[in-house]
Fold this sequence. Notes:
Layout: H1 3-11, E1 16-17, H2 22-25, E2 38-40, H3 45-58, E3 62-65, E4 83-86, E5 102-106, H4 111-119, E6 123-124, H5 137-142, H6 150-153, H7 156-159, E7 160-166, E8 172-175, H8 188-192, E9 201-208, E10 210-211, E11 215-223, H9 226-240, E12 244-251, H10 252-261, E13 275-283, H11 290-303, E14 309-312, H12 316-327, H13 329-334, E15 343-345, H14 351-365, E16 370-376, E17 381-387, H15 399-412, H16 428-434, H17 437-450
Parallel strand pairs: 2-4, 3-4
Antiparallel strand pairs: 1-2, 5-9, 6-10, 7-8, 7-9, 11-13, 11-14, 12-13, 12-16, 15-17, 16-17
Helix pairs in contact: 1-3, 9-11, 9-14, 14-15
Amino acid sequence: MALDQELATLLGPKGWLTDDLESYQTDWLKMHAHRPLGVARPANTAEVAEVMRRAHAAGVPVTPQGGNTSLCAGAVPGAAGHIILSLSRMNRIEPVDPLAFSVTVEAGAILASVHKAVEDQNLIFPMHLGAEGSAQIGGLIATNAGGSHALRYGMMQDLVLGLEVVTADGRIWNGLRPLLKDNAGYQLRRLFCGSEGTLGVVTRAALRLYPAPVSRATALLAVQDFETLVRLGAALRRDLGEFISALEFFCDTGLEMLLRNVSGAAYPLTERTPAYALVELSTSAHGIDLSAMLEEALGTALEAGLVVDGAVAANEAQRGTMWHLREEMPEGQRLENAQIKHDISVPVASLGQFIDETIPKLEAILPGVRSNPFGHLGDGNIHFNLSPPSGLSDFGESKAALSLCLYRAAEAAGGSFAAEHGLGRSKITYADQLRSPEERHLMGTLRAAMDPKGILNPGVIVRENPSQE
């Protein structure tokens, strides 16, 4: 029996799809689309294991897929005839353990659903990002997602206590131990975080929870330049310490696009400046006046010349207005015209200098190109997105040169050309150019050891033939 017939029999009509596959086979940015053999939608771990066992025996590649929100084409096949393994039906969330501050969920659980599931226990899962209404936990683990609260709570790998994973040949590893400390050998759970479906298929995860905040304080600050922005961030971290739950930034170029293109966006300050900071404090302890703390810290920053204008949100509506500016920054640029998205990181202390020195380099390649750096001030992660010069609809022949210039600058600054979005299949060439042969060889060796046939998401992170590294 042919493999597609085997899988149809195994999974049934809800579990094996061969029609209307556009939403599965096309990546988020609509840069890649290849017709798969079919989409497998298993209902449990045993079915995932059986799909992998049969695909491994047949030598047919498999691309694991969560919410398909990858910005690097890591969740769609790189060629026709592969199997897309969708975890969307495996979305169960087990009862929360309020004593252990943990919850076990299946890989297909939507991030927003996990947020809601833990609310009743006055707990939070502190991962927040723009796609939380569609991103699945398995995909967030596979990409080691970051988000707006990574400064305080860490990346996804820091929020995963244990995993259940199906290997390339269909074996099941049960590492669902909800432990902070487990040094019985290699940290396998961290190995799968950021592997983008190339080392195994995450099927369940034990996640770390935190007490829900009982109060928050949020402020939007206008800053005279990016160098001052960095010094402001450092001052706030010294003055406010562990109460800071988010420390974000954006620029006036992006703000202008947002106000022009996104309905309902409003700027709540009087002064417009080149750079802006969004800071939020939170605590789960009662009796702490966060607003007073924040206002005192901002008063000190004003006296030191670190802030031109600012405001502390007086209520939830004002807080929402401030966060709307940061969260809709990508949408404002998307609605403007064509864009190039970049996800890089640099040492926090170098962020201002990096932006100031890199923008002229980009303008030398394409005069008038509009730079929109925004992102996470607390950890140095910059979404350095570009728009064509005013009046132009695209980047002409400059697109690749602009990206390479930016990536080289990030690496030269001691940073990374891939911060929180991963490599997928769209950044492999840059990885080969910008990272050492030794590093690329180690990754190829690891992948070959875990998946000798190379059937798991070929063409993602490393080339299909590790000898090319």
